């Protein structure tokens, strides 16, 4: 949820420049590629779409074959996006995002928005009570105990 909060702060800082909004969206997409399920789903959807136009290119976009040893896949399975390792894909997308930030003259605004977003995140995380659920359960049990004793009288 903090990533969404930081992205929202960055997005609000760039309403005055349309190219900065595109840069913020591309940065959010770079963050989303770090999620395993999103990366796999994105790669599969893009490959299916490309297959409609060029089956040969779609075959190249498939991840390399990983052998299955003794009926099991390896526990440390690397993730591929459009046939490329995720680290290479995220690095390329990050370079595109940085270029968009640079062209839109939004690097200073981005740094201020991220600083404010990180500060708000740190303040929120430090002021949050760690065991709120446990405290509410204790209060509920104490209330039930007092209510039972009150009904006995």
From TrEMBL:
Coiled-coil regions, chain positions: none
* GO CC list: endoplasmic reticulum; membrane
One Pfam match, given by its short name, reads PRA1
> Which segments cross the bilayer?
20-42, 107-125
Q: Where, subcellularly, is it found?
A: Endomembrane system; Membrane
Protein topology in the membrane: Multi-pass membrane protein
User: What broad class describes the main subcellular location of this protein?
Assistant: membrane
Q: Which UniProt keywords apply?
A: Membrane, Transmembrane, Transmembrane helix, Transport
Explain the purpose of this protein: May be involved in both secretory and endocytic intracellular trafficking in the endosomal/prevacuolar compartments.
Which family, according to UniProt?
Answer: Belongs to the PRA1 family.
Protein name per UniProt: PRA1 family protein
Task: Give the source species.
Answer: Linum tenue
